[in-house]
């Protein structure tokens, strides 16, 4: 796959108007309905090795996702994006808009749109009402930005496209779990959805599903594991996992499964749609009301997929993930599922050999 | 004014002794009432404790405050280790690790024998969402209900929509406490509590105002220590009275020419949470350099609106509205511009010579934007600034000599600026 910047420049050259979205789960359908192409700014770590600009703004104990995002936006996004968007996904990301805003060249005006998504259950009427108001406000900003009025039919078309995309992601994941492709290849295709226009990603998914139809794998029958984290580990670690004779039977990765596992029912009302989207969202450590259901989901899935092991690829400095992990680990171990916790500091570039050894040892343990 | 010198030169005055008595009494009363069947609530520091005064028998504990006390008493690392042995990462906030260590087997090491188990936990996320995840640990372990107050982050002053959203949540919270405790909420009692809080905060600001004097009538270390009862005794007569006496005593000392750093030549501002394990050491060592940290963003924001300094006074009407409006009275809920606005005001008001940005590994929300804030202060005000590495409650992540090398460099920078030498 081409690098992130090259890919985006290519997309822009085709006439797309890009909006850079901070992770994790921005309202992409809404942006798309206004003729914008949303790009979710994660998965940059393989492209961004030099963080010297980000390091002038962010403390060294900031997570790699935020550092790469900041580096990319400040140093390379000039002229690339029409606007940026963020919501209150986490304590780190909420601090970035002003940091980035003050760092960008004074000549360039890059609007940064913000949204507060209620961190309490949307079953509370006041929270649902508050979100709907915020979505209305965001819609008004988009009308101002694009010069277009909100169109219920355009929104519905965008919703349908993203439903299709999510459904295809689930199918590809299922195909991979059956052994038709490696998880490394599968993850690469799934992650492409963060930067490709949704139409192109749908075409890519469909093509991969066609190519992998009817193919089997010698991996079938190997011990299954579940992997978890914010981003998939780097390719070389996924290859180590499969070379060690393990199959990724399920994933709880924020940029993968957590992103596409839930699709709200089609709607023409953006406020109602996003109320459903955030209320029903697949459990994630960053969606605070879903904490209880996340543990249940992991255990249920682990049992359904008959996984023998769970590997947590912890994004260093992500408190959301690390506060839940001891509980998840204890719960899984008491169900007979072994756990391995690995710390990802710079997308997994450091400690390659150490992580490889630990995965191989873990695999040996599961094989016995 | 009666005072006594400790061997290290630290003066313990009447207010200091009174404070110790208040804090000890607060914890003793908490344990006693809990054992007698009071409804116990654990809260994050900004949760409006005055609401509990509207009930007959609701008591509250503040785990962050307890963790600060543990750090100050030197048991922080021991309690952190207990949490780490349970699998909690050393990268997590040291307040949380101390609290988890206390709750899961370390109570005998706590100076207050820990905290009574809660019947309800209330967090809010404008200081940080980490708190929510931390409190969720107890929710899962003990099956205790956990209510989150969702307070939107402030890039600008609090909006009307956010204010109404917070008010709606307060209503929900009150109903929850009524349902769980079987007690009825009396808004008139809450109003009286809010009046006392407003009075206390006015006196608090009066106490802080002695930092304008040259030499300063206070150190920031005084303010760090004296802020404790705002967390544990909010909305009480004893708090209002204590701060009045504290301000009076400080005024008297200033009139009588008694100053914490009599030879003060360098007036500094501290940005971040207090380094609880270093209060006495750091203040003494700075005093030996004729340096005084007179002001701290951690304490000057208390009682004020976003980006402001003056106290937000209660008009006597709706206590819940006052509490909702003041839900951001800490620094962490404020964006870069708001923090900068307040800091510039204090730098001018208190004639600050230099700023110490304490980059705190355990508090990303406070520390993340410090590099840009430091740059802005240098560029806009031309004021010498340094950044030091600390952890507010885990002394294992602090190096005294490295810190003082930089503090001494700051003093040199101030001298250089005064001499007119090029930077």
Task: Explain what the structure shows.
The complex is a heterodimer of chains A (368) and B (423). By secondary structure, chain A is of the alpha/beta class. Chain A folds into 2 domains: 15-120, 3-Layer(aba) Sandwich (Rossmann fold); 154-367, Rossmann fold (3-Layer(aba) Sandwich), CATH 3.40.50. Chain A is built from 14 helices and 8 strands. In chain A, the strands form 2 sheets. In chain A, strands 2-1-3-4 form a 4-stranded parallel sheet, sandwiched between helices. A 4-stranded parallel sheet of chain A has the order 6-5-7-8, sandwiched between helices. The mean pLDDT of chain A is 94. Chain B is α/β, with parallel strands linked by helices and 423 residues long. Chain B has 2 domains: 3-188, Rossmann fold (3-Layer(aba) Sandwich); 189-419, Rossmann fold (3-Layer(aba) Sandwich). Chain B is built from 17 helices and 10 strands. In chain B, the strands form 3 sheets. In chain B, strands 4-3-5-6 form a 4-stranded parallel sheet, with helices on both faces. In chain B, strands 8-7-9-10 form a 4-stranded parallel sheet, sandwiched between helices. In chain B, a hairpin with a 5-residue loop joins strand 1 and strand 2 (11-13). Chain A binds chain B through residues 56-59, 61-62, 88, 90-92, 94-95, 97-99, 102-103, 114, 116, 118-120, 124, 126-127, 130, 133-134, 285, 288-289, 291-292, 295, 314, 316-317, 319-320, 322-327, 329-330, and chain B through 86-89, 91-93, 96, 125, 128-130, 132-134, 136-137, 140, 148, 150, 152-153, 155, 161-162, 165, 168-169, 172, 335-337, 359, 361, 364-365, 367-372, 376.
